[in-house]
Amino acid sequence: MMIKGVIFDLDGVLVSTDEMHFNAWKKLADELGIDKFKKEDNKRQKGVSRMNSLDVVLSKGNRIYTEEEKEELAERKNTYYKELLEELNENGILPGAKECLKMLRQKGILIGIGSVSKNAPLILERTGLIHYVDKISCGLDITRSKPDPQVFEIAADKLGLKYEECLVVEDSFAGVVAGKAAHMKVLGIGTEYKQLRADYEAPGLWADINWEVILEE
Fold first, then answer.
1. Cys-Cys crosslink for 115: which of 10, 36, 84, 153, Cβ 3.0 to 4.6 Å?
2. Interior CA angle at 106 toward 101 and 108, to 5°?
C-alpha cells in the first residue's frame, strides 16, 4: 500500500533537544541529592513518557516518593525544560529535517508529528517547523506512552489516513515498536539506527534515503 502520510517523532528526529532534557533532569537530580544520574542514564529516557523518565532519575536515589510528590517533581523538571526552550530556535533543527519536510510536501505527502512530549507544539513553534506540519499528536493527546502505538494512531486519525498508509520516522526502540504495533512501516534513524530493527534505516534525514521506494512499497 502506498504511503500517504509520514509521522515523525520530534526529539532526536527533527529537532535536537536531548541536551536540554538532560540538563533539566540533572538540575532536578542535583536538587534531590541524586548524584548518580549521568548522561548514560539519559539514554534510557529516550522515547518514553515524562513520568517514566522521572522513574529513571529516582531509581538512582534511595527515597520512595508518593504519586503526588512524583507529579510535582515531573512538573518542576518541565518548568526547567521550558525555561531552556526559550533559547531554542531554528538552529535546533537537525540536519536534513527541513529539506525532508519540504520534499514530502512537494510530493503531496501529509506530515504528522507523533511525540510523547507535551511541549511538542511549543518546540515546533520555536523552530518554525510548525509551518510544514499538518497535524500534531503529542503528550497532550495520549493516555499511554510508547511503546504503546496510541500516539501514532491518533496522528493517523487526525490526518484522516489508514494506519497502513502511514510511515513512522523514529530514533528510539520504543518508538519503532510503537510504530509497528500500529501496523505502520518504520524508518529508524539516529546514532543507534542499526539496533532499532526498523523496516528501513539511515543514520539521519540528511542521508541518501531512497524515498521513492519507501513511499511506493
1. 10
2. 95
Burial (CB < 10 A; 0-12, 13-18, 19+), residue 156, is: buried
Q: Pull the grid cell for residue 13.
A: 528526529
H or E element that contains 5: strand 5-8
Cβ-contact 138, 117 below 8 angstroms: yes
| H-run or E-run covering 188 | strand 185-188
Residues of the chain with pLDDT under 50: none
Alpha-carbon span 138 to 119, nearest angstrom: 8
Query: Residue 135's beta-bridge partner residues?
Result: 112
Q: What is the spatial distance between Cα 72 and Cα 48, in angstroms, rounded to a whole number? A: 18
Q: Strands 5-8, 185-188: parallel, antiparallel or unpaired by DSSP?
A: unpaired
145 with 52: CB under 8 angstroms?
A: yes
| Residue type, position 87, single letter | E
Which pLDDT score, from 0 to 100, does residue 40 have? 82
How would you list the strands of the sheet with 166-170, edge to edge?
Answer: 135-137, 110-114, 5-8, 166-170, 185-188, 200-201
Q: Which residues belong to the active site?
A: 9, 11
Asked if residue 132 lies in contact with residue 102, where contact means CB atoms within 8 angstroms, the answer is yes
Q: Minimal CA–CA distance to 5: which of 125, 169, 161, 195? A: 161
In this prediction, residue 44 carries a pLDDT of: 80
Residue (of 121, 114, 117, 128) closest to 6 by Cα position = 114
